[in-house]
User: Fold these one by one.
Assistant:
Number 1:
Amino acid sequence: MPGGDVPLGKLPQVEAIFAEANKEMARLERYSSLVESELADCLRRKGIPGPELVERIAVAKIGLVEKSLQLCFRLKQEVGSYALMVGTGFEHVECVFSCVVGWRVRG
């Protein structure tokens, strides 16, 4: 860039994705914490989680993974060919995506 280097994380479109990610992850983590608390209460009473709690656990797990993958995909689109470089961390996203897709197909 003329006039100096700008870190990718400081580009406005990337900063916007980071801001959205922080907001969405905070929301999903709050939900996950509530579900975890419910499960802990159930297990302390030596109970077995009912169908509704099991469904909330699944929603929490899937929601966090799915939102993470969506945000990573958008981030890859914004940084372009940088995401193809080894050592950037993006090479691991495809592995996680493959595992989730395989799980959904079998699940």
Number 2:
Amino acid sequence: MRNRDELTRFLKSARGRIRPDQVGLPAGERRRAKGLRREEVAALAGMSVTWYTWFEQGRDVQLSAAMLERLSKALRLSAEEREFLFALAQHRPPPLALPADDTVPPAVQEMIDSLDVPAEVITDDWTVIAWNRMVKKVFRDYSELAPEDRNLFKILLLSERYRTNEANYREMVRWLVARFRWDFSRTSRPEVFEALIEELKRKSEVFAEYWKSTEIIAHFEGVHTVTLPVGAITFRHTSYAIEQAPSLRLVVFAPVDAASAARLRLLDDQA
């Protein structure tokens, strides 16, 4: 019982010290406290509100190590606080914390080079650190950009290439911001995200507008069309964690129909 009482006090204190704007949430006018609400913590941690409420209240519910990790990131716990949370909840130390990765394993680079569809590897803040020839042919040649300019999130929001249709652009930004907010809640490098967020607030009114919302998307997947000299190609993109480097994501773009696949092959055949 003592552990559960301590767990309740600890969680209330942790969420009470986080301002909503620190995790991309609007402050609102009717807040009685400065910290996060239970439902906001639950959303950021990818949990149901009921489950988190019961856990904070000290009821007899069990959270997996993965759920406790997500909760630690949502509450921005220090290494010592993370260990304390695991001790209170599971009576054992947490798994070793994984550092952010910025190096692509050679086997992964070899694999994406062998693909006949666009594929790239991004860090947790969406910086592109590896790509194949099809990315260069369909999207852009990242080797022509300075490393600090290879952030995919910033490119998609700020490039005029994606603003030919304002309604489509706004829908894209809405989706991207919702997904980016999810990644922000889980990063071990909040200072990197915060710098990017402040830059985009200054440079994009549409980003600033959608950043005030609370929408969250947990899965990096979608369908979009790219217009190229060979014609329009529609891709479905999906992402996968890399086992050797868990903080990296492999993003693969596959044509959704025969016509798109044929145009992609035609593009690949061109010099």
Number 3:
Amino acid sequence: MVDRTGARIGRIDDVFLDRHTGRPAWAAVKTGLLGARNTLVPISAALLNPTAEVQVPFARDQVKAAPAIEPNEALSRDLERSLWTHYGISGYARSSGSCSARSGTLPNARPPSSRAGST
């Protein structure tokens, strides 16, 4: 994943799908020293740039400062609310707690009540 200027943020580890639409809503990105931290990034406005990187409309520092999530942690309503606030996205009350389905495309994919595997 890269930021709005093309600066590398980190590697996408998982994808959360919106339970109502089945569309990707959040990406868990490995950030920090040696990718030791998972940060969630909203990807509804993400683009696939010409070099096949997922590009999001946020600054790298904003993504790295977002609340972290543990690798096997489900996306709670409280965490989702704090993420919407962190990224300055309105309308979070409508979709709060709506992300939990998975695609099952990776060997580390978790049960339907948790996250979607993707790289």
